[in-house]
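Archive transcription. Copying these from loose printouts into the bound notebook so they stop getting lost. Printout 1 of 2:
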Amino acid sequence: MKYTFRPCVLDDFDFLFMLKKDNFRRYIEEIWGWNEEEQKNRLKEDLKKHLDHKKIILLDDKSIGVYVTHFTENGDLFINEISILKEYQNKGIGTNIISKQLKENKGTRTILQVFKNNPTKKLYEKLGFKVYNETETHYQMEKL
C-alpha cells in the first residue's frame, strides 16, 4: 500500500479525536477512566502545542492515520504517536513508516513509549526497540 503524508491542520480535530477514541480509549479507560470532554480538551491542547510535529497519513487521498515525531533537547528522535484506522492496521503501513524513519535517522537514538496494556509493544520489539524504563502506565523503549 502506497501512503503519503500531509501536514496536520486544526481542521483535522474530528478525525484525530475519532482515531484517539477508536485506538486508545480502551487503554486510557482501563487506567484512568474515559471522560469524553476531558479527552477532547487534552487533544485541543496537544494540537496547540504540537501541530507542527503531526503528519496525517494518507492512502489514496484518504486520511487513515497520524504520525507524530520530534527531536528532543538531547538529540533523540521521539516517536510521539503512530495511530492508524483499524481497517488499515496489520497491513505493514506502521511498520514501514517506522522502518523508514529508523533508516533515515540511523545512528540517532529513537525513543517512544507504549501503554503497558497495548500489544503494539511486540511490533516495536520486532523493529529492534528495547525497554529502557517503565512508568506505572507505560514502557519507555529505545532503539540505538
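Printout 2 of 2:
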Amino acid sequence: MFGLDTSLTILLLVCLFAAAVFEFINGFHDTANAVATVIYTNSLKPWAAVIWSGIWNSIGVFAGGIAVAIGITNLLPTEVLLDTNIYHNIALILSLLITAIAWNLGTWYLGIPCSSSHTLIGSIIGVGVAFTIIMPDTGTSYVNWSKASDIGLSLLLSPILGFSLAILLMYILRQVIKNKVIFKEPVSNNPPPFWIRLILLLTCTGVSFSHGSNDGQKGVGLVMLILIAIVPGYFTLNIEKTPSDMHEIISEVKVTFAKINPTELTQDEHFEYTKAFNNLNYLDSLMLSKKSLSEFDNYQKADIRKAVVLLGKSSKVILKSHNLNLSISNNSKLKKDIEQLKSITDYAPIWVIFMISISLGLGTMIGWKRIVQTIGEKIGKQHLTYAQGASAEIVAASTIGFSTWLGLPVSTTHVLSSGVAGSMVASKGIKNLNTKTIKNIAIAWILTLPVCIILSASLFILFRWLI
C-alpha cells in the first residue's frame, strides 16, 4: 500500500482508523447541538432526530468545500511532517490523535459540552511546540502561529456571538410574533403547532448541515496531515495536476504581477512583492524541469508546497494594499489565478471526504443522550421553550455557515451552548442560568487548549524517545 512495508502499512491504517474514531466521537459529542432543541420541544422523537441529523451532517461534509481542512493542515509547517524517520512522523500523528480522542471522550462521559475544534487544534499545536523543543538549535518555531491566532480568534469570538445574537433574536421574535405560544414551554409530550415544528426542524437541519460542513472539514484536514506525514510522496501535492498546467498559471500570475508598480508599495508590501516574485520564479523553474509532479522527490514536493503557501500569503498582503495600482479586472484575475495555483496543495481525495462523512454521520446517531440532557435541561433553570430552541439553532447555523465560508473552524458546541444560555437570559435574566453547569462548561472550555497542548506535546516527546 503506497509502497510501504507491512508494518508501516498497518500503522498507517491504525492512524486512519483513529482519525475516523475521532470524527465518530465528534459526531456523537456534537449531536446534541443539533437535536437537543427538537427533542426537548417534542418536535421530533429522539431516534428520528439523530438519524435526520446524521444524514445532514454527512451531506454537509461533501458540500462544505475544503477551506477549513486546509487551515487545519497548514497549522503545522510541511517540514514538521517530513522527518526522515517515518516512525517519528507516526509518533507525531498518534500523539495528537490519542490526545484529541481522550479529551473528547472524557468530556462526553461527564456530559460537558466541549469543543472538538479546540481539542484537535490544541493537539496539533502541542506536537508543533514539542517539535520546536526537540530541535532548539534551529531557532525556528514549528507552529504556524499566524494561522493559529486566526483560528483562536474565531473560536474565542464564536461563543460571544452565539450568546449576544441569541438575546437579540429573542427580542426580535417578541416584537414580531404575536402568537405567544412560541414563548411557552412544551406541554407534556405533545408536539408543537405545525409552523413552530417546521421552523425547529429547519433549524435542526441547518445546524446539522453546518456542523458537517465545518467540523467534517477538520476531520478531512486531520486525515491529510496523516497522509502527508506517512506517505508524503503521494499526498504532499495533488499529483493529478500537471507541471505544464501549473506553468501556464504561474506565467499568468507573473504577467499580472508585472503590472504592479512596487515603488508605490510600503516597505513591508515591497518585501512581500519581492518574495512573491522569487517564489514564482522558483516554482516556474521546477515546473519546467518535469513532466509529472510524481517525478519530484519528497523534499522537492515539500519545497513546492512551501513556496505555494508563501506565495499565497504574500499575495494576500499585496492585494489588501491601499497603494495597489491594479485595475479591478486585473485584481480579480490575480486572485483567481492564485487560487488555481493553490489547488496543487489545497485538495483532499474524494475517498478521504467520504470516510469522514460516514464516520461523522454514524457518530451523530450514537451516544447523543449525555450532552443533550446538559443542553436541554441544565444550562437554564427552565425547560427549553420553542422560541429559545429556534433562536439558539438559527444563531448556530448562521454563525457556523459564515465561518465555513471564511474558511475558519468554529466550535458548534460553543455557539449552540452560548446561544441556549443567551436565550435563557433573554427570557428571565441572568438568574435564569444554572450557575453550576455554566461553571463546569466554562472550566472545560478554558482547560481544553492548555491540557491538549501539554498532553500531545508530552506524548510526542515520549514516543520520539521510545522509537
